[in-house]
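User: Predict the structure for this protein chain, please.
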Amino acid sequence: NMEINIPQPSSSTKIDPLHLLPEEDLLTNLPEEFYTRIKSAKWKDRVEVLEELNVEHLNKIKKLQIREDYGPLLKILSDIIHRDVNVQSVTLASDAVNQILKKLPKSAIHESYIAMVFPALLERTKERKPSVIEMITKTIHTVCGIYEPFLPGHESLILKDLLMKLNDRIPGVKLECSKIFNELLGCCEVMDKLYMIGNLIEGLKIQDTLRKLINDTQVYIRNVTFMIVAKLINLLGVEYFQDFLDKIDKLKRRKIESMVEGEEGKVKMRGSGQLKVKPVPQVTNRNKVIHSNTRR
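Assistant: Here is the predicted structure, written as structure tokens:
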């Protein structure tokens, strides 16, 4: 008898849990008069139809149909997130976007979807109500999990917009976007080091932004910035931040140094495994480069 070898899946292969699920229809089963009600001048109408969309439809669907165009639906949800004065509508619309993106395989999510929803989500980080911010940041993390921000070619849709918000005039936006950036650095799924050096350091000049944030009047923004700098040193190497460290005061420098070796500066991949990055010089020895304050 001929022996047939059937290849077994590798234990390291990441299987999309959506792969085995049946597709379900959303677009032809939207709430009655959805597009009319969602544009109503009455906030109660908008909230009502968004609740129907989430509770009666999206919550019951495990996997959306792949070969459908979700652009028009995502566009109107993004408009609600961006412009609606009612925070309940904003929260519900963000929840809907989050569910749609999670219930589609990555291969079915077009760049145009990301370009539609991401700027609107960043804009609403100005909200102060905790429940709104929680839903907005949750959806932002979903977007970044789908469209990895630290891979080549992704900077125009994710990183550029996010880093622009670190310079925003609204303190709440600066704080929330700094926290998001710090969290993204702390749990990279995939990271291309050479790209990050070329894009973050040389292209987007992130040190200039961090220098402003580290001197911000808000202590919370300064503290998040210390963590960002520590993570970037661990990811990319201290040599890219030597000039930055030399130009800040000793107290701030010591805080960053302690974080480089502490929990705040750790960088791990989601799930298991450590990122393979260039090791950072030890910071305990005062002869090491990170401690050298001497200007030559």
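Residues 219-236 form the longest helix (18 residues).
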